[in-house]
Specification:
15 helices, 9-stranded mixed β-sheet, alpha/beta
């Protein structure tokens, strides 16, 4: 009888465990098997400190015994193991950036962090080596322009998107489960597999949403969380579009000011705004076909993130002389972003209102990245899996926020708003400079993050780092 009871119990446990190796929130942590990384980064030499592994997790965390997939993970061992603090997990941005590549390159971290932590990251759901979909547009459908010009364009955009997603979906098991809340569960499974009682985390750009929502769901499992280039997930669609346009306009204003005072600017001693307006007028007349006015503003969005002001000045000068704008790739994991952020835009009338709102706050650059985000997600199933909301975080150690005053992508207003939501559970440090990404800007920004991650030392309220 005893043997039969044990056998029944073991059988039940086997059923509960799901597929072999699957990570479960209530089961034993999965053991990561570290080995050589696939040789898919030809410009990155092999490094004996870097190893890769696969973490098996459920496709749908609400069905832990259902289908699973493997998360690509990479680890870089601490250079000074005798002074090692623990594991530090890096949350990549995008959404669509590869954390595995960040770890293999190793150029995203200071010397102290390379010495003191085993650095770990992963390719999130639907990104690179982790069940990335193969998305090929339907050749029978025309890709609508940005911005849309009428109801027919709006309807065509919805049809184009839905046809594209229909072709993506069969190629990835996680296409409909790539929201950040699901990635939060993946991150906790990774923490457990790494053997860490509490998580040390550094999120960049869109990766800050992962850090915010992890701290919200698992406050007792947080050791330290850095949010660099802060994403604000509390905004409705109109506020999102307006703030994205306003922050790009702010960075463009800074570029104009630099040109006015610097002989290094190819447009020095010229009316930069007038030159820029002529370039947009050329685009509006179709002189750069197939490039559009949005492609012109995308050039600014890409180069102001550096910021690479001298290069932008040369390109604007050349466009004014008739050269077409260079192609700018703004990659985005649709499966992740559209599941986190509802594009509740009913028709072209609603859409045109968003365009007017953007132009009102950004008269030079017109659009900002928000309008592209809206168009990419038109027609996504509603409700989304991870709808926007104000944060409710109660961690023992406050989260550290770091943002540039003039960031063209994750604007300073977003960081201020997230800091307000966090209250005493967050601490914002302002970099009084430019560009997207602030950690390695100078000794001050680097020291703020390193002291927090290594020693859990918080900077003083209202702390600032100088530009440069």
């Amino acid at each position: 009888m005893f043997r039969r009871t044990v056998a029944v119990a073991l059988a039940a446990l086997t059923v509960l465990a799901g597929l072999p190796g699957a990570a479960r929130a209530d089961g034993p942590p999965q053991r990561l098997v570290w080995g050589e990384c696939a040789d898919d980064l030809p410009n990155v030499p092999p490094d004996e400190r870097v190893r890769c592994a696969r973490l098996r997790v459920p496709v749908d965390w609400n069905r832990p015994n259902g289908p699973t997939f493997e998360l690509a993970v990479a680890r870089r061992l601490a250079r000074a193991p005798e002074r090692r603090v623990g594991m530090l997990v890096f949350g990549p941005g995008g959404p669509g950036d590869s954390g595995v590549e960040r770890i293999r390159k190793g150029d995203r971290f200071s010397g102290e962090l390379l010495d003191r932590f085993d650095l770990v990251s992963f390719d999130p759901r639907s990104v690179a080596r982790t069940a990335a979909p193969v998305c090929t547009p339907d050749p029978a459908l025309r890709k609508p322009p940005v911005p849309l010009t009428g109801q027919a364009d709006f309807d065509a955009a919805v049809a184009y998107n839905q046809a594209l997603w229909g072709r993506c979906r069969p190629t990835s098991p996680v296409f409909d489960h790539a929201d950040t809340l699901s990635t939060v569960r993946d991150l906790d499974a990774l923490r457990r597999a790494l053997g860490e009682r509490r998580l040390s985390f550094h999120g960049s750009s869109y990766g800050t949403l992962l850090g915010q929502q992890y701290a919200e769901r698992y406050p007792g499992r947080v050791r330290a969380v850095v949010l660099e280039g802060v994403f604000d997930h509390s905004l409705d669609v109109r506020s999102f579009v307006r703030t994205q346009a306003a922050t790009l306009q702010d960075s463009f204003d800074e570029f104009v000011s630099w040109c006015d005072r610097s002989a290094d600017c190819a447009l020095h001693e010229r009316d930069v705004r007038s030159v820029w307006a002529r370039v947009l007028a050329r685009a509006d007349r179709g002189e750069y076909t197939p490039r559009t006015a949005f492609d012109v503003t995308a050039v600014a969005l890409g180069l102001l993130a550096g910021p690479r002001w001298p290069q932008l000045a040369v390109i604007v000068r050349d466009m004014d002389a008739g050269a077409p704008p260079p192609e700018v790739n703004l990659p985005l994991s649709v499966a992740a972003f559209c599941a986190d952020w509802p594009a509740r835009v009913r028709d072209y009338t609603d859409y045109a209102g968003l365009v007017r709102d953007a132009v009102a706050v950004a008269p030079d650059v017109r659009y900002g990245a928000g309008l592209l985000a809206v168009q990419i997600c038109l027609g996504w199933p509603s409700p989304v899996r991870n709808p926007p909301h104000a944060l409710n975080v109660h961690t023992r150690t406050p989260l550290l926020l770091l943002n540039a005053r003039h960031d063209p992508r994750t604007g300073y207003a977003w960081a201020v708003n997230v800091a307000r939501q966090l209250g005493r559970h967050g601490r914002l440090v302002t970099y009084e400079g430019w560009g997207h990404g602030t950690y390695q800007r100078n000794d001050c920004t680097e020291a703020v993050v390193d002291r927090y991650l290594v020693d859990l030392t918080l900077p003083a309220p209202g702390a600032r780092c100088p530009a440069g």
